[in-house]
Amino acid sequence: MLNFFGRKKPADVSARGGLRDMLEGFSIEVMPRTAEKIEDFRAILPKGTRVYIAHIDGTPIEDMVATAKRIAGEGFPVMPHFPARIIADKATLGDWIARYQGEAGVEQALLLAGGVDTPKGDFHSSMQLMETGLFDKAGFKRLHVAGHPEGNKDIDPDGSDRMVTEALRWKQAFSERTNADMAIATQFCFEAAPVIDWANRLRTEGIGLPVHIGVAGPAKLQTMIKFAMACGVGPSVRVLQRRAADLSKLVLPFTPEEFLTELALHRANHPDFAITNVHFFPLGGIKATTDWTAEFGASPAARAVTA
């Protein structure tokens, strides 16, 4: 089988083994409408896989909680999104936390600003959500925050990552003064070298949180380009555009094999590498992503580690 780059899968045993190790304990993101298409997550995910539930603006909280309850009932730790800019106020935040906890037993969350430009209520950043103290009061054991290896022009319009990095320093300090286990979950990327440079620079900036790197699951190249442009992914888009210029590769599905193999080989040579886990955005479908991970040993029969 050919990979995204039109080459045969690496035959090097160490490379394949490194990729398998890299996939150990991967997580995956779903939405209520995409989760509905999966009859039983136990048939496609390794035991213990963390499932994020993306909260898109306009999705009723009832649908979010029902999805969390269903997936948790199948035995998976659930991590719903809490997008600050669509939460009206502290009372609403408290209500959401109580619903997730009371109905689905949720005890972890991804906190992020959210994809809307103008806040709909009192919050505009994940730091404000954290400062309420409600997650700590409710006994949430794990909080993840957003990371942007290629920067975020909504936060740093000048193209730098000064404000993004400063926010991560704040979150690092928050993790040190609270009981929550924290990690950085990033936007999806396609090019390994800039990601490695960014992850290494975090450590020089005093940010020691583990990184769960965002990865787009298998999908058509056209689909990848569409989502990358919509989500503001920057330099990595060049990788896709170069492939799109070769008409012979337009018909090939995108797979993240080469990207993840490069990260895995770097991690094998640098055990203190900041990237510890892989987080999948199944843009080509949940089943397509889980089928691909199963090729490398991350099957329902495998034991997952939810670090």
Automatic annotation (TrEMBL):
The keyword Oxidoreductase applies. Keywords: Oxidoreductase. GO terms for molecular function: oxidoreductase activity. SUPFAM superfamilies: FAD-linked oxidoreductase. It comes from Thermohalobaculum xanthum. This is Methylenetetrahydrofolate reductase. InterPro entries: FAD-linked_oxidoreductase-like.
